[in-house]
Amino acid sequence: MIKSLNYFLLCFASIFVFVDTLSADFLDKRAILYKPKISIVIDDLGDNSIIAKQMLSLPAKMTAAILPQTPHAEMISKFATLKGHDVIMHLPMEAFTRPDLLGPGALFSRMDQETFKNVLEQNIASIPNIIGFNNHMGSLLTEDEEKMQWLMQEAKNQSFLFLDSKTSQDSIAEDIANQTGVPSIGRDIFLDHKGVDISITEQFERSKNIARKVGKAVIICHPYPETLEFLKHNLPSLGEEFELVGLSSIMLNNIQKPLSPSLAR
After folding, report:
1. Among the residues of the chain, which ranges form H helices?
2. In this structure, is residue 262 part of a structural domain?
3. Does any domain span residue 261?
4. Total domains in the fold of the chain
């Protein structure tokens, strides 16, 4: 009788430990699942392979936004993919100012549809492994309904996602993407925008507050030495509260969020 009772108690204790372990694992997974997500997109990659590799070697999942038809586009894309990052094309689009900054592969409002499509196809062919694109400059073109319809139809045909860099407060690109059935999202923060009197630290804190409030934040930064140093020192501390993810992961958890003010035109 005593042996039977001891056996029963031992079995009961084992079940309790097993259930307790399962509960702990479940809570750990829930904690990871429901952490606010931050997605860091590095724009303007393609011309400098050294700093691109340094930024893409930081301890976080990120998204490499690579300019088409640039000298190191293919190599950077392959390196980013090897490191487990998402890769998108940083697609040059006509802006209201500084056409000299667009670089090769730019899309212009004066283009006819055939030319527009041909340039886009050449750009896509120049960067392997891309899953979508965002706009480089583009304050003019992202307000052009016809051109955005052409662009998003091609994006849909390629099963691409789209990140609106929101270089114009009047951008309709994300709306057209949604209407066309292209997975899309808008950036929340320019982390290191030149010519804006807001520090990287202030922008970083703003991005964390957005993520806390709505569950996610999309940050765009650039391959500047000061940005590299800032991220080196600040990324390690994010892991306790936030999950750093690629853009594709953010898209899977796309929740309605407040509109972000434009910081560039």
Report:
1. 2-33, 49-56, 73-82, 113-125, 145-157, 173-180, 200-214, 225-234, 247-252
2. no
3. no
4. 1
Residue 50 is assigned to a structural domain of this protein: yes
Q: What range defines the domain where residue 174 resides?
A: 36-252
Per-residue pLDDT tens over the stretch 119-157: 999 999 999 999 999 999 999 999 999 999 999 999 999
Q: What CATH code is carried by the domain that includes residue 144?
A: 3.20.20.370
Q: What is the pTM of this model?
A: 0.84
Residue 3 lies in a domain: no
Rounded CA separation 184/255 (Å) = 11
Q: Which long-range contacts (CB under 8 A, 24 or more apart) does 105-110 make?
A: 105/67, 105/68, 105/69, 107/141, 107/147, 107/151, 108/141, 109/140, 109/141, 109/144, 109/147
Residue given tokens 């606010």 in the structure block:
36
